[in-house]
Amino acid sequence: MPEGALPTVLFLCVHNAGRSQMALGWFNHLAEGGAIAGSGGSEPANEVNPVAIAAMTEIGIDIAGEFPKPWTDEMVRAADVVVTMGCGDACPFYPGKRYDDWELEDPAGQGIEAVRLIRDEIGRRVRALLAELIE
Q1: pLDDT, tens digit, for every residue of 41-63?
Q2: Is-catalytic flag, 116?
Q3: Is 13 a catalytic residue?
Q4: Marked catalytic residue, from 75, 87, 115, 129
Q5: Does residue 2 carry a pLDDT above 60?
Q6: 108-121 confidence digits (pLDDT tens)
Q7: To which H or E segment does residue 129 belong?
Q8: Is residue 72 flagged as an active site residue?
Q9: What stretch of H or E contains 82?
Q10: Which among 9, 13, 129, 133 is annotated as catalytic?
């Protein structure tokens, strides 16, 4: 990473509607401008999961303005760390790039209680990642 450049993280999942959106919300909330993040999906959904939005709203993080989008090669190349969440072979791979695969349950079709657990685990992992990236 060039001197003075902010670390960049890309969160990827299949639909870019739950896990990756919650991770992006946590990251932007916790990074306080000390790092940059984006998110994308291999098969973006039509909207962000409303239960994921509700779970994040409960903790004061608003992701209601987000929308599912596809990842692009440019996004992946620009990232210092690519965090994949359940997209398997559909996720892009570039040699020499740091990849973290977070095995997390998919919040799609789940109730708020289950999504809260997923939200909290994502928050824990984002905090740990930021502790590594921002020293």
Answers
A1: 999 999 999 999 999 999 999 99
A2: no
A3: yes
A4: 87
A5: no
A6: 999 999 999 999 99
A7: helix 112-133
A8: no
A9: strand 81-84
A10: 13
